[in-house]
Amino acid sequence: MKLYELIARNPHLQYIDAASGNSCRLPDLRSSLDLTDQQQLALLYLDNSIAAIELLLNCLDSRLTIALLSPKLHTAYKQQLEAAYAPYYIYDPTREQIQEYTPYKASATISLFRNQENRANIHPDLKLLLSTSGTTGSPKFVKLSEANLVQNALSIIDYLPINSQDVTPLNLPVFYSYGLSVFTTNSIAGGTIVCANRDVVQKEFWEDSQRYGYTSIAGVPYVYEMLHRIGFCRKEYPALRYMTQAGGKLNPALVNIFGEYLAARSKQFFVMYGQTEATARMSWMPPQALLQKPGSIGLPVRNGQFCIAPDTQELLYTGPNVFGGYAHTAADLATFEPLPVLHTGDVAKQDDDGYYYITGRMKRFVKLFGARVNLDEVETILKQETNGGTFACIGREDQHLLVLHEHADLEDKAIRQLLSEKLHLHPSAFKVQQVDRFVLTPNGKPDYAAMQQKLHEKAIATA
Amino acid sequence: MYTTQQLHDIFANALSIPPDQVTADLSYQSIPEWDSVSHIYLITELEAAFNITIDTDDILEMSSLEKVKDTLRKHNIELV
User: Which residue numbers delimit the AMP-dependent synthetase/ligase domain (chain A) (predicted)?
Assistant: First the structure.
């Protein structure tokens, strides 16, 4: 069954626009937009407004293949993506015009850009494209099918206590796999979904929380850091039933603080693990085991299996939510080949009770404020912007990204400012260090492990 | 004694924007740079610069340059 049909079968579902207080039900939104009946590509720079959700639902009900992206992406990156994929439709309320595209009123309130010359050869199974790196504007997408979306949502509904009385805020972006799964699972099995672009450091979010009685809150690690900072656990939330966390490893102290706060009030805290390549979810921690198994990513979701590669200890996942390959250009949309095994890039171990733990990472990325930042792509950006300079980027504990370089004339502040602008991340996420020379591997590539080790020794020596 | 200029400099630094972008009508999310991440950073910088502890409710209240000044006034900090 299609995702849209599952959503349409939920009689309790309503969407509330927090900005106006208006509510609507799915039949009000069905076919509210005039969209093509062909399978074409639509690039959607979506926020969490009711208009964006209306568009998303209409697209799910259509034959369109949709790519979900952040509206805050740098315009130059948006143009690169559009050049690489030549979409039929573009939705981007932040731009007045787009070259080679004509404004198209899909309804009285929602406008798209359209280029009817653009025709893509798209595999019939390919429904959704999600970006893995929200910020570097890389044209690399994860290819997902209708079945991936449905299976992911059902496996989450299997363990989360979602019910028709729920009032769920969309406080994570829907262009992000975790935020999208909050949307899909609650649309299928929940009750009221509140659409707004409000986050937890805004008073309006908490006013909405009281007005509507939010029953759950979802957050990546930095959302929990903010919740802690604003004194979340010093107050009471009678309607709240559970909270979820994913998108990277949460500081163990905060797992305890939130775990204990919620358990003491008979509320549940779900710590979860996943990747966009698995549509979102691979494992979850049963709340009753959370405080006994610190640092665990829990057990695989229903219909999913983990195994640990004997030689590398890499965590491997199989399940019906595993993606159908990456796309780098429009030509890649013609194929969809479900992978038998997802290589997570994380190194893991399993305890005697069957619980899994991540112990390291093989892939070259760092998570900053919940966004996966590809370190090789950052090096490429720096090279371009400095006319061919050489840089080595290292992720440190998912706290910051360290840029090493050999150029005596480069100012630290300028590099941090540049990356902040290009990646739309706060400059405090970047540290810069000039070194005499890089450590290289025998075949002349930067030896990141050795450089990391050297920094570690230096830190100990100066401590 | 603190000056408005000092406050503007704290804003420029915390939000990572040029000082001339710190205008009287600046508010949360009115520019992309003032988001949830930089907001927490701003609070930390304000606490350090003025040697105060900002109440958790005030963190949510401080959603514009004007409201930040109101909160500072509660801590008996007047800017000249």
Answer: 42-326
Q: How many CB pairs under 8 A join A and B?
A: 44
* Residue numbers in A near B16 (CB within 8 A): 417, 420, 426-427
Same domain, A336 and A383: no
Distance, CA of A217 to chain centre: 16
Which ranges of chain B have pLDDT less than 70? none
Residue that finishes a domain, picked among A330, A361, A392: A361
Q: Are residues A279 and A167 in the same domain?
A: yes
Q: Which helix (H) or strand (E) holds A257?
A: helix A252-264
Supply the range of the domain harboring residue B47.
4-74
Which of B16, B43, B56 lies at the smallest CB-CB distance from A426? B16
Residue with tokens 């080679």: A100
pLDDT of residue A387: 82
When divided into structural domains, chain A yields a total of 2
- Answer whether A288's CB lies under 8 Å from A282's CB: no
Given CA atoms A16, A17, A23, A28 in this order, what sign does their dihedral have? negative
Residue ranges in chain A modelled with pLDDT below 70? 133-137, 462-463
Is residue A392 helix, strand or coil?
strand
Reference A175, options A212, A128, A214; nearest CA is A128
